[in-house]
Amino acid sequence: MPSPGSLSLKFLLGLDLGISTAKAALFDFHGGLALVRRVEYLIMPEGDTVETDPETYWRALLEAIRAVLRDWEGRPEQIAAVCVASHTETVIPVWSNGAPSRKAIVWMDNRSAAEARELSEQMGHRRIMEIGGQPDISPIWPVTKMRWLAKNETDHTRRVGKFLLPEDYILYRLCGRMVAEQSVWSSSLLLDIRSKQWCPQLVDFAGIRADQLPEIAFPGELLGTVSRDCSAETGLSERTSVVCGAIDQACSALGAGNIAPGIVTESTGSVLALLATVTEPVSDPSFGIPCHIHAVPNMYCLLPWHPSGGLLLKWFKDTFVTGGCDETVEEGIYERLAAEAEAIPPGCDGLLVLPHFQGALFPEHNESARGVFFGVTLSHRRGHFVRAIMEAVGLMIRRDLEGLERMGVSTGEIRVLGGGARSRLWSQIKADICRKQILLLPQPEAAAPGAAMLGAVGAGIYPDLATAVREMTRIQDSILPEAANAAVYDSAFALYSELYGAVKNLFPKCLPFRSIQVSNAATDGIGAE
Length: 529
Description:
Distance between the termini: 37 Å
CATH class of one domain: Alpha Beta
Largest sheet: 8 strands, mixed
Strand content: 15-25%
């Protein structure tokens, strides 16, 4: 195999389809970022119904790709491969010719709650976890959405050619092939994550035929080249390889070099998400951690996450500092808030935050949990509240790590991602609270780099994923925990755990007084992803 330096095709295009932002990023064969362009898009719920034209996703990525090619000084023929990292759970029915047969049913659509209860009654949580890797059964999962369609749009469902997820749809638009990429389908409850085949019992439950599901493909699999139609639409070359990507969190793990047990990636974006690489799937629903097929061959990943992460800092900024002004209006506001927080001593002079503003997941598993500011005095200033929010995220991470370790999962080091990784103070706080080394990467957004690595393997640039990760991953800096802060943070963590135990039974009593719902809007600045 020729070395990267001897090839005329010297770039890789990583696409990242997030839940509100599409990114196209161009990398060289050593992982250097040449150019990135972002396009935001918005899908708004209407009660339990959340639908969108599937072209919403493609148009956003199309605009990002065109922007890269417009602003880049190279030629499309120099792009060796294109690969996609994507969110999942949105169901896109298409006719046999690939045209959407109806609007996509978006991941946050809740119409299939009855079908979720039905599945729970028929098979139970333990069996579902064994097959599909998910500890809960809710309307988010595609199998329940498909059953709702089969019940309520029976004739249409019978005539659907294929059911796709977002990554699959983008791959089809790129090269004309319909495949089911196994890592994104590992949160569908239709794919057996052990055999990596469709589960007949769950296909039957969905009310669809097995031939309506695409051929299963694996991350890094070469699907072909950019189609003539796609080339005309995007400007990409028909010589460029199209390679299967993976679920965005798994691609982010690749981009951070998290491909073996012992490494944990942590992303503080709107939500707080961790990923631990493991060799075997977890099948005990009592742990409450989703288990997915990893982008790494023969590996799995555990994904503990929390709905409130960097969103808390944005909420505080919007509500108490800028009145909702955009970062462009209040330039540098996050940096000023971080400077105020840095002037406050660890432990915030007794101010502690329970960060469960939208419920608590692993390891608490309490949907009724809410946020708590505890120990407030008249001497606490704005910087105290900012630092207390940052420390609360660190305390959540420590609880997650301890929960993973109780499961026998090694958590030797943390590689931080997301908007929160832009704040060195926040990374230092996390290192001090968790007593772990924190590693920083040149780019806090790693999904597109991870997709580029898969593209490099699929296109034959590197012989395997381990080589691609080694050649394309760089650690920019490391942060060691400060021993002087260990005692205060041990005390804060003990109080944090005790405080939750003291108030957890009071949370349901708040519900009769609630008249507003918390928005799950994307964050900006250092809390963004």
